[in-house]
Amino acid sequence: MVKIATIEYFRVPPRWLFVKITDADGYHGWGEASLEGHTQAVEGCLDAWAERYVGFEADDIEHIWQMCWRTSFYRGGPVFMSALAGIDIALWDLKARKLQVPIYQLLGGKVRDKLKVYAWIGGDRPSDVKQQALARKAQGFHAVKMNATEDMAWLDSPSSLQSAVDRLKTVKELGMDAGMDFHGRVHKPMAKQLAQALAPHFPLFIEEPLLSEHITGIQQIAAQTSIPIALGERLHSRWDVRPFLESGCVDILQPDLCHVGGISEMKRIAAMAEAYDVAVAPHSPLGPIALAACVQVDCSLANFAIQEMSLGIHYNEGSHDLTSYMKNPEVWDVRDGYIEILKGPGLGIEVDEEMVRRESRDAKAWVSPGFIGPGGEVREW
């Protein structure tokens, strides 16, 4: 057994946090601990764990996961679980690279050879969706996702909902499917109306119809509509997910692998969802390491539905995109709505460490945008 020698992290543009673990024999693995808008907090957690877990057996992935979870007394939440995800993903990558197999071979093997994918259009204040959808279609996508609305008051004019219907119709007329992300920015008085208005146009799903703290309201909307309900990016463990499965108010579970403690917990959450006949469509608007980790789990899941990709997402400002920081960006090529599974060892991507180290120098932490209403009130972003 070989011990962990170093745990490093790298803050890189546009808003990502990469983790590298190296063992005493020189084998290494990469993880991603990105938590949008809370980079410094995750870095603090990683500092503490780097001091503690250097010297542990690198192969003992589950033991280290349980040590992080059970010996901390306070557990869970986005910061804690994102830091744990960075370590967990890197350990899986290290172990699989050492064995010269893809991670999915250590998860029971693959059940499919390619994965259905979708990409974002429209931005935070959705507009120009026809041209953007056509561009995605030219890239090979058959499905997209867009924000359903701009910022919205607790009780807004019903006329503010029509633009969401019009944009969905526009994309559907191009022969594409579209998920409509309410993003938790629509409160119950408006969300009920919006779900009803969208239903005749058959969106692929509606995402986060309400914030996840409002499980009773989500149950009410789920009972009202035939549209599949998708949620999960702000649930951070199997214990967070459980009441949504038990209440029957979610049809498509969207855990973010970077926010649920990594590959280990994602696999457990997906198994729970399968027992409730709930599909899994991992949330992944982040970097290439996060997506590669999702892909490794996706191809091992019977209940996988579709994978989000951050290619060209509106947060990838400047010269950095999903294909950055890697030497084999061609693995993200989309053909007829699908990507091939990753066949290389470990995560299946080759990280450009020189670029990571260079771009991490003086990298600024990304700050979450916010919305302020016309009365000066804070609105959900």
TrEMBL record:
Alphabetized Pfam families for the sequence: MR_MLE_C (PF13378), MR_MLE_N (PF02746)
Keywords, sorted A to Z: Lyase, Magnesium, Metal-binding
Coiled coil spans: none
Keyword Magnesium tagged: yes
A GO MF label: metal ion binding
Top-rank lineage group of the source organism: Eukaryota
NCBIfam families: PRK14017.1
Protein name stated in the entry: Mandelate racemase/muconate lactonizing protein-like protein
